[in-house]
Design a protein that fits this description.
By secondary structure, this protein is of the alpha+beta class. The protein has four helices and five strands, in the order H-E-E-E-E-H-H-E-H.
């Protein structure tokens, strides 16, 4: 998936996040960011590298596999393919949406 396709997939999934509160930043390949502000409804998604309650660092190919249902976020985390900083409870809630 391209970066734009990843952003669109995250946008679609976050639109369904009615009960989610907080801000999450996905950092892809250490260079690109997808910031989700779920304190607003519907959640606001940007590609700005802004502070967040939870930062999730992941390779874009791993994230693509998770979004396409080819891999599990929990398995990727257990194998060290996902690094979480900040609010881990928020990261767990996000993983259920992906």
């Amino acid at each position: 998936m391209t970066f734009e396709e990843i952003v669109q997939a995250v946008r679609e999934r976050m639109a369904k996040a009615q009960d989610l509160r907080g801000t999450v930043k996905f950092v892809l390949d250490g260079t690109q960011a997808v910031h989700v502000d779920a304190n607003q409804q519907p959640p606001v998604l940007t590609t700005e590298d802004k502070p967040a309650d939870c930062t999730i660092r992941i390779a874009s190919d791993t994230f693509s596999e998770i979004l396409q249902g080819k891999a599990s976020a929990m398995t990727a985390f257990l194998f060290g393919k996902i690094k979480v900083e900040g609010n881990t409870g928020l990261a767990m809630a996000i993983s259920r949406l992906l």
